[in-house]
Amino acid sequence: HPQGSNPLLYTPGVDSIMHLDQNTFDDTVFDQTKSNSFMVEFYADWCGYCRAFVPFYRDFATQVVEWGDVTRVAAINCADSFNSE
Questions:
Q1: How far apart are CA 85 and CA 79, in angstroms?
Q2: Consecutive 10-residue runs of the chain (85 residues): their mean pLDDT?
Q3: Given CA atoms 21, 27, 31, 36 in this order, what sign does their dihedral have?
Q4: I need a surface site. Which of 8, 10, 44, 52 has the fewest CB within 10 A?
Q5: Cβ atoms of residues 83 and 77 within 8 Å
């Protein structure tokens, strides 16, 4: 579960989307010891377009969950002040 105070568009533990925050982004996405690539959505929880995109991104994440050895699907809430860096 990411740190921060803003609401999330995806439910941790339910959706097949890894939640990132300012503390976990670099260590997760840029870790050279892993063979995974990442598809990361940078969203703002208040954005209407981001909210409209939720079902499509959630569906995509569900469809590629079996590709976990190759790619991972993640998201970070850029509107959360915790992620300002």
A1: 11
A2: 80 90 90 81 95 96 90 93 88
A3: negative
A4: 52
A5: yes
